[in-house]
Amino acid sequence: MFMFSRSICCAKLNQLSTFETLFSNLKLRPCATPLIGPLQTCEYRIYSREKAEYANVNWDELGFALTKTDYMYVMNFTEEEQKFFNGTLTRFGNIEMCPSSGILNYGQGLFEGLKAYRKEDEGILLFRPQENALRMKMGADRMCMPSPTVDQFMDAVKKTVLANKRWGDLNLMVEDNVHRAIPGGTGGIKAVTNYSPVYKPLTEAKAKGFSDLLFLDALTGSNIEEGSACNIFILKGNVISTPTTHGTILPGITRKSIMEIASDFGYQVEERAIPIKEVFDAEEVFCTGTAMVVKSVASITYQGKRIGYKLGAETLAQKLHATLTGIQTGLIEDKLGWTMLID
Asked: pTM to 2 decimals?
């Protein structure tokens, strides 16, 4: 995970703000799990790279919480020259932040998340990291923040991954009272303030046995948008539809990749407004995101009405998941140049 915050720092810190890049190997987490948590003090173990080639992790008991790894990447920013510099790896730990930091007082912060995959031959692949770098620059521009260059972002990702290389059914409820994003807001970027507003309705939905919420647009309240942290698709016949990304929906990189793969499969892929009533006529519904990749939706409940959808090995969602993860892990030839081998 990569966090980027604007700090209005004290003079004794020489007007430096911090860009921190934290890479942690996370077990796949459903989109219902919030990606942002309350500010807390880090408690972590230091693992010696000399002691083991791979980290001693019980993957079956890993769960969905953050797992701290060995190193993080920190870069400084100078207000005078308006650029980032002196990027360096450091042991994972707490960071020093000025009380007047913009992220603490005004929520002026961004984050990005991507995955690294270990191939069978021990090589490590990054999946479309340039897209994350460009999306962070877009988000920084929207939040009136400076951003590292694409090259700086890529260098930080490569170094952090290599330093930590030893680490190795959705039921949705439609939320029609709370809106995740509004037109003209920041719903289309990975701002830190986008996720906390859904905590309360999401907690209430989980208490009722649902996995996640499906949000409607704030303008009409009749079109679907996305889950709390994932994009959504519906399938009917040979047509795959997904809501357009006009500022209120995050332009997911997995979303973009799945659309291209589905087109190669021969499906007609549409980006358009999707009325909630169309969801109940769909043959299949699935969500996409960095953590889950692609996951079938078992059911959607709206105003007390529950509709179930096709599940299992023969679903399009499973085929898309197998293809994309095959490309990400190097088991399927990457003809589109999406992956990057690092060493």
From this structure: 0.69
